[in-house]
User: What shape does this take?
Amino acid sequence: MARRRCVYEGREKDLFEGPGPGLLVQHFKDAAWVRRPRKVGVIDGKGVINNRISAYLMTRLTEIRVPTNFVRCLNMREQLIHEVEVLPVEVVVRNIAAGEFAEKFELTEGTVLPRSIIEFYLRSEDITDPLVSEEHMTAFGWASTHDIDDMVHLSMRVNDFMTGLFTGVGIRLVDFSLTFGRLYHEDDMRLVVADEISPDRCRLWDARTNEPMDKDRFARDLDNVVEGYREVATRLGILSELNNLSEAPGR
Ligand code: 5GP
Assistant: This one.
């Protein structure tokens, strides 16, 4: 492993000290972790594909003026990011009923929702990520009403953009989760999309067959898990770029 300081060791990604103040290196691993049902494992090659897909989506979002903390790809498994103060809640946007959400509301999986639904979950190591309301977030100081307005507004823009992008390549964007962080610059602070946007964080179904092409393949013990991720990259037209990047040391 390269001689650099690890500032955060995550289940699926590590963060290393960056080349300057306020910069970090985000390293994508092949380790896989699912919260419901709890499952751990390895998906060979996932880190490389997620690094590329997330870089591509974050770049496209920046082009439509959705702020993110992504700076640039460094190599096959790593990208340079701005250091942010991550909010303790994550946003889930749902377009189609799936998973536990479908069960909870007694909907057939695949039912198109009357409109996109935004939910907030507490990010927690100790308890199983409970669904939280604006009341919880403001009372416990996890996010202000202004933060919540920003997160809703930005999440809807991300949803509109990504729904169109994926529809264009024959993929249904069922749902996805977003992490937000506070990016400080001089006297200014703004909320930005952080972490990653990848098949680890989105439910993506083939538009023709409704076959999952995301981490649900792993969660549900289906075969061809990494092939699903690879197919997403192929359809986005970024697989050839993937083949041109050099493998990073220390996977
Ligand atoms: P659900 O709440 O239905 O299990 O998942 C909703 C969305 O969150 C799905 O698109 C799924 O890919 C994503 N997701 C599932 N597990 C995680 C996780 O551990 N972290 C994050 N950020 N998103 C997740």
Notes: The mean pLDDT is 94.
